[in-house]
Amino acid sequence: MLDAIKRLREKTNAGVVDCQKALRESNGDVEKAVEVLRKQGVALASKKAGRQAKEGRIESYIHLGGKIGVLVEVSCESDFVARNDDFKNFVKDIAMQVAASNPIYVKKEDVPEEAVKKETEIIKAQLEGKPAAAMEKIIQGKLTKFYDDACLLEQPFIKDQNMKVKDIVTSMIAKIGENIIIRRFVRYQVGEEL
């Protein structure tokens, strides 16, 4: 049991008591316990989503010998959490994610309607001649791929490709017990068109 708790803690960063409960609920299966903890994190995050997050930090990240630079603002509820090492490392990871994956928007809701319409038109043009019955399903699949590329929260996390950035945010909310919001970011690259 101790070995399973240790492995589960390494995978999730959850507390010992939470790991014990999740392992009991999953009959000692570590992978199922990870799912249990993630579901608990989603439930906790949804409860905290309405709470105001007016504290936080702005983090910078410079990559490739000064060729790419990122500023990111991530908010939390208290200055105590904003100074916490776990939160600082989380914000640094988000800045690295922006540097590596070059998102355009924070979340799906930030994508302007015109951009979605334009992307849909491009997809339809690519699918010309395909059966009408399959068109809508293909369009939805390609739009999902567009969101996965363009929206930070929808992207696979650079340190764990099995999780999306929004899952990492949710697990961080569960871990620290406060609402966390990625507010905005800006990414600069040397030689980039303005």
What does this structure look like?
This protein has 194 residues and is α+β, with helices and mostly antiparallel strands. The protein is 55% helix and 18% strand. The chain has helices spanning 2-12, 16-25, 30-48, 79-82, 85-101, 113-126, 132-150, 165-176; strands at residues 55-63, 68-76, 156-157, 160-164, 181-189. β3 and β4 (160-164) form a beta hairpin. α1 (2-12) packs across α3, α2 packs across α3 (30-48) and α6 (113-126) crosses α7. It is globular, with a radius of gyration of 19 Å. The termini are far apart.
Structure keywords:
single chain, 194 residues, alpha+beta, three-stranded antiparallel sheet, 8 helices, 5 strands, 55% helix, globular
